[in-house]
Amino acid sequence: MLSLRGITEHETFDHPVATMIVISSSNPDPVSTIMQLYNPNVPSFTIDKPYIDTNILRYYVVLHDPNRTTLEQSTAVFEKLKRTVGLHCYLLKMNSNPRDPLDDDSIEDMSAEEIRSIWEKGLAESYRIESELQTYGSETSSTSNSSSNIPTGGNGNNAGSHTRSSSISSNLSNLQSTVMQGTSIRSVPVDNTTQDETESSKPTSKEETSSVVQYGRCMTTEDVNEVKAMVREFIVKSMIPFMERNIQHWNEQVASARRGLTGRLFGASRRLFGSTNRSATPQSVQTIAVQGANVPIGSNTLTIYPYAAPEAQMRKLADYAFMLHDYKFAYTIYDTVRRDYATEKTYKYHAGTQEMMGTCLLMMNQPLTNKLDVDRNFELAVQQYIGRCRSPFHATRTTIVYYELLKDRKMWKDGPTALVRMTGEDSDLRSGLFLEQAAHCFLRASKPMVRKYGFHLVMAGHRYGKASQRLHAYRSYKMASYVLDNNSWSVAKSHIQFALGRQAYHLGRLEDAVKYFLNVLGDTKQTPQQQLAHIREFLFIYKQYTTQEGIDPLKESLGHLSLPVIEDRDIQVTLSNAQSNTTNPEEWSMMEIELLEECIKHGYISSSKKALAVQQQDDHRVVCAVGEPAIVHVDLYNPLQVAISLSDIILGCQYRKSTEVQDTTVDEDQVMPECKQSNSESSDMFDFNEFELQKISELTLEPMEKRTINLTMLPRHKGSVQVTGLHYTLNELVHTFRPFHKQGKRLNKTKEEMMSVMHAPDRSLDILVTSPMPLLDLAFHHVPETILSGEVVQTVLEINNKGHKGLTSLRLKTSHPSFICVGNPEEMDKDIYSSTSKSTSGRLEMNNQLFDASVLSIPLPGKKGEDHSNENGVVVPGETTLVPLWLRGDRIGKHTFKFLFSYQSDEDNKMIAHRTLQYTIHLQVLPSLKINAFTRPSTTAVNEFILGIEIENLQTVANFDLTQLTATSPMWSIAPLSINLESAQDVKEKTVIPPRQTTFAYYKIRKAEQVDSSCPEAWTSNALGALLNNAPDSKVKAKPPPVELNLSKLSFVSSSSSSSSI
What we know:
Structural class: alpha+beta
Strand content: 15-25%
Helix content: 25-40%
Oligomer: single chain
């Protein structure tokens, strides 16, 4: 863009400043030869343009070849020429004797490595660019018949303007190749050069080597130094002084007149009263006819200033000052001539001066006073180049120059504004390049703006894709993916992954395309149509990929498939009798620990199995017997708004003979396991030798549907079975294996665990398979949904043994011990509210030991036909027993009763200590009665008290009938005081409580005839004293004596009344 500029009419940087005329010292008539080489009256094709000044510096070089002439002869010719043409001459000494191509030994190759590298550095890059331009031009001309009317480079130059590109191309057309140091550089694009072409381009015979041009072979180091000295003298003594004289002349003759008062008045009068159509003169604006490929579409004329016009001379003055690094003076001249260009409406000249004004401000070695002025100059230049001049080439060049100058000043924050300004719809390739550079500016800023960097890379990749630059688009999206690879930018991440998948597919990278489309399938924020398109495109690409790789898509697994969504923490393994919807695993685990400690404490689990029981509790492993089905519950969720189909759903399991806990690694590339169907063809169980697995043939998940599937595993041998994952096929084409990675609870004991996220290993998917065991199955009958506060309801607990061994030592741990009471099977028909018609009193002996009320023993029947049956009872396989269980509404509210059952086998099993079963019941307790009581000493007798009881009915509909009052105490008894038990009318008035009403009654409390003499306080005091005195018998577990209570019952019903009330 910058090296292949070419000659243009609106700027003079590429206009010739000097011409170098070279003759040999062996020429017999050097003066005549010079006149033939350069005749001012016949201009060459280079300067045969009305806007190019013919007054240029002529520099004469006499070439002395020591192999042809002597130094004295060459010096004489040089002096003669110097007297004729002036001081701009130079005598160059160089060995220019050409090599005889027919004689390889005629001249020895004396050139050094540094001499040959001169051409290697300069010509290699130039030939590559020229060859690519020629290739692009030939392809464009072959694909379009009307390419002469289309601007190929976007340059607004006329067709007759000479460019360095055309001159080099014409010179290259006569050469087959250029060999430097034995390497051939061909005029073809580098990317298209294959190894065969490179090998074929090497010379293999004398005919091929004869056409090779080898630069610098006859030159020596002294010759190179002579050329450098000549160039130095030419620049310092001739060209720069020539330019300085022209600058002084134009400044005095043209610029000074424009800057003075007369020039300003003349310019103002011309702007206000001058005619727009002036006759063409050597010093006015002219319009010439042009044609060619570089002319904008719809234009056949070009507006120019002749080289003798004051505006053209001032532009050349400013350009010369700029080339000599006088940027401040150049800026002043550009600013002066800019106004004239604006008046004449020569927009291309005006845009050029705006560009150079901004360039001068940035090139000055001083801080910028106002950055807005610089950006405004370049912005106006770009707008006029594109809008008025229709020359995107110069607009692009202006943007690149501006960007490079900003980079030099480290002004990264201002770069994106200039680059994004040129991202129009006319060139996708240019827009993609500028957007990518703008992204790098955001990244190199003092405070990197990473999100803007990624955003502009995405836009660059989009424009590269529109320009069919697949590799550049892939690279841009790939860099953006590192920035936007965050769940908070899910939509942007999905867009990038989708674009990467498409670009990878077009580049032939099918494996990468499949990987990127896998990341898009689970995008939930797209429309249903877009989600369906993603699935179809993924299936199409995956089918091509499997065909190309020669693999079976229904057997080989594709990892990281995000459909459907499976939460590892929700996966559960239960036995056939367990509930699958249990919650709060931490609470259940705590209950299991407490139940285990109670069982060990009271001898239900022998001390030899204590360590085994503790290990079983710590591992949280599911224990399954041989031939006993284990059920794996997996939640499948379809996050999309379109339905997906799953087929051949089966568990992935690993069997090992050892029962020890081991860490297993799961391979995601597992193939679909081969198996045979068990027993009948209608069965969905499949045989895998060590176990049988259930397979679901087909399943459809509707949009946004969450479904729990239950898959059965039936072990056949003792050992361990690890549930590793799930096999399934998506949409009958893509088979995948989804491994399970379930974590244990969060560790939070040590400092290291608190400061980092660490989880305990989870063993719930490692199933322990033992010899045949009992299997408990429960059912609660007659459990109401609601009861009243204080109400007692009898339910029935049905106990079934579905295992292959006898069930014994059944224990219950409950979360609400005050609500539960377990009875014996003989008490199944016992009436809860049975009451007598007479008031009675009696004695009741109660155990006074402390115990855990939440742990209960369930009575079981003994084995039939055995005299010495198990003391804890046994339920033989296949039998059922019923146990009464009473529920009491102890507290008002909604309650969830958690029942944890523990049981053992009647035969010793060395692999397991006990088995557990979880059960849950929901119950609501409604308010019934509100009771307030008080006591006061009696005024009539000693050791008597008056008891007042106030009872309020909280129900709004139901009546309450008081049928009996029972009191228990070690030393007191109760008798009615305000109620006449002989009068039915009085009893009814004071014991029947209507809705929202209150009743009040008084009772007499007197000391009982028989008083408990056990004195538990004295026993406790003696035990504490022995413990503190370290008595020998203090460590012996002594039991406190039982407590004898007086039981008083006051009946409020007659023998003929009903007892169904509360």
